[in-house]
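User: quick one, fold this
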Amino acid sequence: MKRHHSPPGLEEKIGQMLLAGFRGYEISESHPIARDLAEHNLGGVILYDQEMADATRTGRNIKSRRQVKALVASLQRRARTPLLVAIDQEGGQVNRLKPAYGFAETISHEELGTINRPEQTFAQAERTARTLLDLGINLNLAPVVDLNAGLENPIIAGKGRSFSSDPGLVARHALEFARAHRRHGIMTCAKHFPGHGSARGDTHLGAVDVTGYWTEQELIPFQRLIQAELCDVIMTAHVFNARLDPDRPATLSRRVLGGLLRGRLGFEGVILSDDMEMKAIADGYSLEEAVRHGIQAGLDVLCFGNNMKFDPDIGAKAAGIIRGLVERGEISEARIDESFRRVQRLKHKYKLI
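Assistant:
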């Protein structure tokens, strides 16, 4: 595996804090993502099967098993540091590897929770993990550990993404999901902290306030996964909860990420943002403000799915913003080092470096 032969510089460390989406079934030397890998030491990429930013375009990164495998191998060959290659392969409606592309049918979290046989959840997750392993994809942005706490929730309940309204049952199934992936060397990401299940709106579309609905029970599945040491990565929610932070949504909140997740729950792994281009963030903050608040709050990796709107230069822009924040003293290099070390520990744990 590739290793740094000299201590990484600031630019290399910043790059490891970025996970970006891109267009294309294959990449050439001149492709923007190839440039980001070469010039900015990008830490990770995220794959999608559908184009959301432009309805006139069909396809994104996935059209067949062979093609995806070749794409991932090509990305890793070009990477200066082995990549986190991420995908949302929850099962059910949130499923990038669809039968239309030659992959097996999957079962949603909601269906698995209704069946309520943890061994079946393990078996389903193991099939998913084997598929990801074969493709070279090493990070599944799942399980969803949000409670099914609001039937009016369009993005969790509405898409069958929660195992249950019972936090104990959610935790049991999430643990099996994570164990199955770990057996095959695939990282998992519990989402969306501190809980998106009680929301009455979709953070893709705008600000979502859960102040009147969220309960402490929504923390239980995260807590159980952390205690079981089966939590590689936690993804933040862009929800606003005035009881946790009267000023900022969870993704940008030091109280939520530093105080609650790191402090109270004792999480020491990688904190990953939900897509920073979702409107719950992008409508209220400039790109620079969002990046600054997010890193100050405690994000280790910032996700730019590049699929809400498309910008081939998003990786370079984000890296430039972070470098500028450090140069101006708004973020210390020691803070960058913290996140860099967490990302490298995770990659080392899974034998990427």
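User: anything notable?
Assistant: The first helix runs from residue 10 to 15.
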